[in-house]
Amino acid sequence: MELRHLEYFYKVGKHKNFTHAAHALHVSQPTVTNAVNQLEEELGVKLLIRNTKNVSLTHHGELFHKRVESILGEIQSSIEEVKDRLSKIKMGLPPMIGARIFPSVYKEFKHCFPAIDIEVMEKGSVSTCELLETGELDLGLIILPEDQSSLNVIPLMEEEIMVCMHPDHALAKNKEICFSQLKDEDFVALTPDFLHRKLTLKECEKHGFTPRIVFESHEVSTAKELVANGLGISLFMKLIVAKRSDIVQIPLSNQTKVQIGLAWKKNKHLTKNCKQFIDFAEAYFTQL
Q1: Rounded Cα–Cα distance for residues 247 and 220 (Å)
Q2: pTM metric for this prediction
């Protein structure tokens, strides 16, 4: 008795149709028919009642179908358990979060779970969301998007968006800045795969102007150095330029905050390792 024969029989019993079962299994109908015939011959009983359109289970077939369902479920659970123990967590991180937030989280996580490895891909939050949706990443520690329809998300912390500029800039002495005051400024922007870029364009549009972007980069460090050298202003999370004497950060009069959190694709099977990281991250940020 071969395992694939049990799988083929289970699908036929589930779909009540050889053609539909073959389609679900990605094999030919004769392959399924022959497998079920061999299974019946080996068991010495009829499992199916066949007619021109559909099939139904005999009394013996119903009993056997329930047993096969249980066996296949146990096998799949065992496979997933083994994979869980071997699998890495594929995680997407925007560079800003990767540089300022993730290292301390990762250090504590590895202390608690030394056997679990994390493979990091540094992309902006927009690109990370796309990779989550295609299944190329398991988790993302990102700035959470407004449209969360295709993702499960867990907010972990909030961070204020600041207007950042050189200390000699004309607005550097302000206690706060109205977004409309930035209409004639030169902007240093991140590339479109960063939610910072979307946020900047959205706020500018809301205040009736298009930002004059004089330089854009996918490297946060490059953008910060351009701002530090007086080549333009930019919007960054408060923690990104903390403790820098060559960059002044000023809050917006209409305070703007973003949520940072974990995200993963809806209906995606999460490995045990992923679930452990999610639980750990929730507990870690709750204590901050």
Answers
A1: 14
A2: 0.68
